[in-house]
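Office hours follow-up: a student asked to see two folded examples consecutively, so here they are.
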Amino acid sequence: MWILNIIMILKIFFTWWNKQTFGTFLKTLFFGKYVGSDEYGNKYFKSKKNERWVIYSKNIEATKITSDWYLWMHHTIDKTPDSSDLKFSWQKKHLENQTGTNNSFRPTKIKKNNLDKKYETWK
């Protein structure tokens, strides 16, 4: 069990893709004020100088930030997003980038017979 703890500590020291870097860990520890979290488990922090950052729950992927928190992170709004905020019926649930997965967008194949060309191809 203690070996797993040592591995976790080494991951924090030597890898930036494992939630946060050591520098971000220190900045959060000394200067960060916890502001909130989203439905994916990402935690958002703010400093006295109004610097804002996120610590991801799993893999670091910028598309995991929801649109509400994105606005807050980029100083567009000052109010921290809340899950009780009203959503419109036309708003879809946030999805992270689906590129490279089975859910990625694949356009339908164009049939050559139905394609009306406005030019004649070279022969």
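And the second, which I mentioned at the end of office hours:
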Amino acid sequence: MKYEEYLALCNKIEKQNNEYLQLFKQQLEQEQLSKKTIELHYFNVKFYLNEFLLRYQPLTMDQGCREAHAFFTYFFVSKCAWASIANIKKYKTSLKKFYKCMLDNKLLPQEEYDYLCYIFKECQHEFEEAYYNRYTYLENYDELN
């Protein structure tokens, strides 16, 4: 894929993601959550969709359910300075709420949502282990030199 094609695809996906985010924000407002809570969920999901999914390859929102494991075991813990066990849980909550909204609006197949829920339930220990081991390679680097 040529760079111009890549940029065009990313822009198209990001535009669609922003529409999904507006729908999500409307639902959160209907749930009468606090402004701070809405902003937190919105930021978390926007980061996931428009930074993580588009960073290395342009992936769509519905492909994001299959990428959550990679996000929590690699990208988030190694690339995000604000990563913590508490923030892993906050991001999981935000993503689960977002993808439930997409499911409720028939923008996501049930099996994709079920897969995401399965990963979140069964892999929390892997997410935590990845967080605690994120600097292991740096410790080993000193031993190599």
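Two things to take away from it. The helical segments are 3-30, 35-55, 68-79, 85-104, 110-122, 124-132, 136-144. DSSP finds seven helices and no strands in the chain.
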